[in-house]
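Input set for joint prediction.
Command: fold jointly, output tokens.
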Amino acid sequence: MNETTVVEYGEKALDRPVMVVGLPGIGLIGKLVAEHLIGELKAEKIMEIFSPQFPPQVNVNPDGTTKLVSNEVYAWNGDEKAADMLILVGDSQSVTNEGHYELAGIYLDIAEKFKARRIYTLGGYGTGKLIEVPHVLYATNKADIIDEVKSYGAIFNEGELSGGIIGASGLILGLGELRGIEAVCLMGETSGYLVDPKSAQAVLGVLSKAMNLTVDMKELEARAAEIEKIITKIKELEQQQQPGPKEFTAEDKYIV
Amino acid sequence: MNETTVVEYGEKALDRPVMVVGLPGIGLIGKLVAEHLIGELKAEKIMEIFSPQFPPQVNVNPDGTTKLVSNEVYAWNGDEKAADMLILVGDSQSVTNEGHYELAGIYLDIAEKFKARRIYTLGGYGTGKLIEVPHVLYATNKADIIDEVKSYGAIFNEGELSGGIIGASGLILGLGELRGIEAVCLMGETSGYLVDPKSAQAVLGVLSKAMNLTVDMKELEARAAEIEKIITKIKELEQQQQPGPKEFTAEDKYIV
Amino acid sequence: MNETTVVEYGEKALDRPVMVVGLPGIGLIGKLVAEHLIGELKAEKIMEIFSPQFPPQVNVNPDGTTKLVSNEVYAWNGDEKAADMLILVGDSQSVTNEGHYELAGIYLDIAEKFKARRIYTLGGYGTGKLIEVPHVLYATNKADIIDEVKSYGAIFNEGELSGGIIGASGLILGLGELRGIEAVCLMGETSGYLVDPKSAQAVLGVLSKAMNLTVDMKELEARAAEIEKIITKIKELEQQQQPGPKEFTAEDKYIV
Amino acid sequence: MNETTVVEYGEKALDRPVMVVGLPGIGLIGKLVAEHLIGELKAEKIMEIFSPQFPPQVNVNPDGTTKLVSNEVYAWNGDEKAADMLILVGDSQSVTNEGHYELAGIYLDIAEKFKARRIYTLGGYGTGKLIEVPHVLYATNKADIIDEVKSYGAIFNEGELSGGIIGASGLILGLGELRGIEAVCLMGETSGYLVDPKSAQAVLGVLSKAMNLTVDMKELEARAAEIEKIITKIKELEQQQQPGPKEFTAEDKYIV
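tokens >
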């Protein structure tokens, strides 16, 4: 395989769908949201993307069968309230620089093929510290939809994201703009150290409002509760190690 | 040389052979098994693969002559019990990401050309600790041959290999599945620190059963015994350094 | 997007312009000068260059809108004293080795299209220490313009720049020579640790003389003054930490 | 510039020349020998090779003019004793893996164009310690010229070079063999820490014998003497720091 290959599974009629992109990234937030949506909506797999820009790897299922690293596109037919949806999810982003550009171009081809009305790319925003109530930040390639996006609960403070947005989540906005495809990136605040289902819940909350969707969040809540327990444990352990009278440790490397 | 080049040495008729792949990897297990098989079966070299995806290197033979880094394909005509065989062995895997995909594709082209009935890729599974009796793990791209593979002595415990299988051994399964070629990866448990002929023996044991082969293992046994001696020595040295009363060392970096 | 793409915004007539290149590099000197010139001269954006050789990134504007990483070309119609100008500025240089060569070739194509009479590439020269009065060093791909360049105030001491000039600033000279395009690199001395508007001022001084331009430097002066304050603060703090009787610190790692 | 470009300077008739390759590598030995030969023989530059596989860099001459990183081919018409010669020398080897293969292929194209009778690639062999009398090791892609090569003073001990030969020096042998071009690699023993004109002298001694050349070595001897002085100085300094009563230093990190 020398070129990126898109395998299509039959035809699927969609009416100007919204495309949601949840690829692996900080806190795994985008991927958690996309997988949760696919599960809850019982979306249907319509495409699979293989690429020499992905790592040379198979993943192993619980029964010992293997699955080549890929990205997948799922489709969902909306209802009287919510628009049709394309959901892009996957095992990996590109591992090469040029590959990022190539793959983002292919995702936009898919959006164009289905005449997608908008793209939401989902990700995390690393803050370096544990966040009690994660905000959801937005960025967009179209100034005149900012008020709309704010109305869904996303925020943006001047000076944030000064390092830019790296990877598919950002590139889809940048390359999308050149093609006239409107796109919004929603980023949940997250420490950056852990898989973060709580921040994923926050992102899903904003996305649900934007899509006029009602999605059961029980599974994400359960996963968030688990992670919460782990964090509490870590904090307890840290407190037990609070210094009474100072003692030397290998980490100190100095003498009083 | 700007492209991967396959040099063929004459024609060789094979009847739906099994392809065995033993390239360098953890513990050198796959390579040890493949080279042992080639030697014992007196298999015949029929192809050599050169590629700008391999390192820019020649190896030097004991007499000072050089050999460009390559992969090689050997052929063996089976007998009334064992099927014909193709054995892929070599000095290196690809050093670039895309090269892994390109080369795995070329290996599958060779399998298809010879109408290979199945591919076994051989490798190691690093456990991080010394293993007394190494198991052989399997993974496969075809669910309905799992019971057969288990009957040869390979095992799989749910949750293992959660990091996936990286490199040619995995990619041949992943890309093979897309082409409808059934493939099994056999991985010998190994510490990850040493060349491991003992684990190679275990893998060869499973493969021999699968192939209905009887192969003399003396050479592998001798190499395993040598390595065993080295390990015993290391353990002795470690025990002699067991701490009596604690003394400061350069590693301690602190003071009581 | 699999290839570097140049988007042109209308036609612009220029009479044998001088091309000025200010891309990100040490001390951000070239970029500071080029952006300052664009602002002061109210130069007009005529081209934008996007490339898979740039990082896969969008930058985020203060209002939350995004901008794909790019390089931009601005044009300015000179006056009775100063020649017409092309100014190349941008967010990034290539992140791949081959990309550097490809992009430098594209910049030279643009220079040739406009029949540029000369190219000035601007950058910094890292000295590793704080510089009170930064000199401006030159290098050129054409020996017989050296005296002219010196007359603008740039200097060169034998043995300097022995490590060569890396990146677009150098490559445009090297590849330009092969095409018969004369080019000069102007490098402001800089510590290498900080954005350096003071060194940018020095480079702009030389360039203004070369271009017969009068440019208001107030903005650069203000930024230089700010950085100066920061440096003074750092020096004060360092002096306060001057050792009286030696105390142990984590950095010492030893005992007297 | 998107592709490797060979610029030819006029025609030069050569009668089955020997090609000598001295590119940058360990101890700069190959480059020192090739440059010395070019200077002493007053060889004529006939080709220059530019490539996006080289670093994106210009070097700066003592007068401030620049020179794009390249490789160069020089030609020399032999005499009644010595054969004609092609000498390849340059600023850099490829910085990418595939580039190494591409460039070695181009060097072999040049050898074939001139019907070169043999190629000598020159380099160093790092031993990790200072060598008083450096040997010259050989490796070759043709077994039946080993005795001849030994007669010139090069040696080879079984088990040496077990790590192979990496880069152009090795690849020219490997790819040359596939094209039926006989080639020898001569490697001077060297510490690996310093430019090594003394080892270059040793390699030039073997090459001169092989070529039936008489070359003045004064310049190399002078450079070797300079380096020798530096080494002596280093050794003196080390001896002065020999411990009398042990004192703690930052390097010690422990306490007796």
